[in-house]
Amino acid sequence: MQLVSLAQAGHAVTNDLLNADVDFENLLPPAMEGLDVFLAKKKKPMPKSEPDQNGSAPVPTAPATSWFSSSKSAKKVSLTSVTSIVDGLKKLYIQKLKPLEIAYHFNDFVSPLLANSDFDAKPMVMLLGQYSTGKTTFIKHLLKTSYPGAHIGPEPTTDRFVVVMNGPDERSIPGNTIAVQADMPFSGLTTFGTAFLSKFECSQMPHPLLEHITLVDTPGVLSGEKQRTQRSYDFTGVTSWFAAKCDLILLLFDPHKLDISDEFKRVIASLRGHDDKIRVVLNKADQVDTQQLMRVYGALMWSLGKVLNTPEVARVYIGSFNDKPMNEAATGPLGKELFEKEQDDLLTDLKNIPKKACDRRINEFVKRARAAKIHAYIIGHLRKEMPAMIGKAKTQQRLIDELENEFGKVQREFHLPAGDFPNVEHFREVLGGYSFDRFEKLKPKMIQDVDDMLGYDIPELLKNFRNPYD
User: Fold this and answer.
1) Cβ neighbours of residue 214 under 8 Å, at least 6 residues apart?
2) Ranges assigned E (strand) in 88-240
3) What whole-number distance in Å separates Cα of residue 212 and Cα of residue 183?
4) 79-138 pLDDT, tens per residue?
5) Which ranges of 35-151 does DSSP label H, i.e. alpha helix?
6) 121-324: CATH number
7) Where does the secretion signal sit in this chain (predicted)?
8) pLDDT in tens, 324-379
């Protein structure tokens, strides 16, 4: 605007004009044709502020200063640059949560450190199930078209994790390439090694649905003899990683394959803590008649009750999610009406994902913060139990062997809920590669920062920003 003013005042516009000796104080503001008329139309009279009971008018506060009323949070978080909830979470993560995670090796034990792309990623839906339960066909049914790299058949056809997302053109990107792209939320998958990345790919295609959500197709979970041929990567670990990132997890079953194999049981167990995201789909339901469907549904609920280990009944959607016409000879008129209602319910659930994505992100962030805090307490406790000089190796082995008792001590000392503690066996396995005396001592200041974030910063952030997906 200064350049426009100088040009209108008769100065020659050059590279050094702003550095020249110009009397900016007496320089007239730039004249813009039609601006005065436009402002006059837009200008509205300001409402008079009513005096309070003491007779003095209230002093208006700047929006930037009223964003966070907490003095603790105002010191640390500069909210002038925060434009949305996601930006606020990024700032809080970098300033308060990430230092705690780095200090106590949270990324080695629980989850890799977050990058900006993890916050900006679109909501994800993951499909899990045994082979030939219709996972790839389900995605094709949603998209109303095939996607690059899709293979369908009665045998285990999908042999890799395929992320179907929006892109300018139709193409498949190999896993090693997609894992190093800074704008993609898959950099954490590098921890599973090249063996996994060679079985991972991204399918991009322009599609209106993919502008809002990303779909994750998975290899069929093996059953019977096939389980003896081990996969070359940690299938359960990868599933658990995706489960933490996803907004919805669909477990697909086939009426002719209701048995839950050992591998499928391990996969479902790895979804612990994400129960609110799980939806069960009984696919290909039009292949059996009404009487058989009733028996199949009962058998499925009985099998799930033993695996999910919850007293509540899981929500099961019944339908036939493919592009073929419904087999009315088997289902009958009542079955057709039931399937249509169930499909509508499931599609409504999927449509609501973008609206709930912001709340889900906050939910996952708070869950991660609580997990990091408990992890710091555990590591700090193990460090405190180590002797100063003699018998370090013996003490470390004793602590690893009695890890469950140590968890109990931490729980009682800091009054923590037992359900928030990590899996003992997995924690013990990772601890084997560390020397406890090199761990950081517990730093109350770091814990207090995370408590302030959970108690003040995030509630204030939610108060001042509406859901960007509404």
Assistant:
1) 121, 122, 123, 124, 125, 163, 164, 165, 166
2) 124-129, 161-166, 171-174, 200-205, 214-217
3) 16
4) 333 457 888 889 899 999 999 999 999 988 888 888 888 888 889 999 998 887 888 888
5) 35-42, 63-66, 71-76, 85-92, 98-103, 106-109, 116-120, 135-143
6) 3.40.50.300
7) none
8) 777 666 666 667 788 888 888 988 888 888 878 888 888 889 999 999 999 999 99
Q: For residue 103, how far is the Cα from the chain centroid? A: 23
Pick the CATH number of 85-114+368-464 from 3.30.1490.480, 3.20.20.140, 1.10.268.20, 3.30.559.70: 1.10.268.20
Q: In what order do the strands lie in the sheet with 171-174?
A: 171-174, 200-205, 161-166, 214-217, 124-129, 248-253, 278-282, 316-318
Tokens of 297: 């549904």
The tokens of 31 are what?
């004249």
Kindly state the average pLDDT of the residues 397-402. Answer: 91
Instruction: For tokens 């609920």, name the residue.
Output: 301
Q: Which of 184, 181, 220, 176 is nearest to 200 (CA)?
A: 176
Could you tell me the two tokens for 229?
């041929």
Sequence-separated (6 or more) residues with CB below 8 Å from residue 45: none
Q: CA 389 → CA 227, 349, 392, 394, 395, distances in Å?
A: 48, 59, 7, 12, 11
Residues 36-67: tens digit of each pLDDT: 776 676 555 544 444 444 444 444 443 333 32
* Domain range annotation of the chain: 85-114+368-464, 121-324
